[in-house]
Amino acid sequence: MAARGVERLLNVIMTIGSRRRIDRSKLFRVIPDYADAPSESAAERMFERDKAAILELGLPLVTEADVLDENTVYYRLDTTAGDAVLDLTTAEYTVLLAASRAWDDAAAGGAARRVRSKLLSLGHDADPDLLRRAPRGSVESLPVLTPLLEAVTSGSTVSFDYRATTGALSTRTVEPWVVGVHDGHWYLHGWDRVREDARIFRASRIESFPRVGKAASQPRPARVDLAEVLGRLHTGDESAPALVEAAPYKALELRDRSDAPLDVERFETAAMPRPALRRLVLGSARWVTLLEPVEWRDEIAQVLARIAQRHEGAADLDAVLDAPARPVPRIRVASSGAEQLSRLISEASYVQSRSEVDLAELAEALGITQQQLITDLQVLFVCGDMGTGFEDLIEAEWEQGTVRVRNADPLRRALQLTDVEVTALLAGLAALEPAAGEESRLVAAARSKLLATRAAGPAEHRGEGAEHAGGGAERRPPTPGASTGPAHRGEVVLAAVHRALAADGPSDPAGTLTIRYSAADRPGTSVRRIRPLRIETDGTRSYLRAHCELAQGERLFRLDRIVELLADDTPQQRDNGSEAGSSVDVSGTVAGEVWLRLEPPAHWIAEAFGARELRDAGTADQPASYALLVDPLRAPLVDAVLEAAGAADVLHPTSLRDTIVTVSRTSALRHRPT
Question: Model pTM?
Answer without folding.
Answer: 0.76
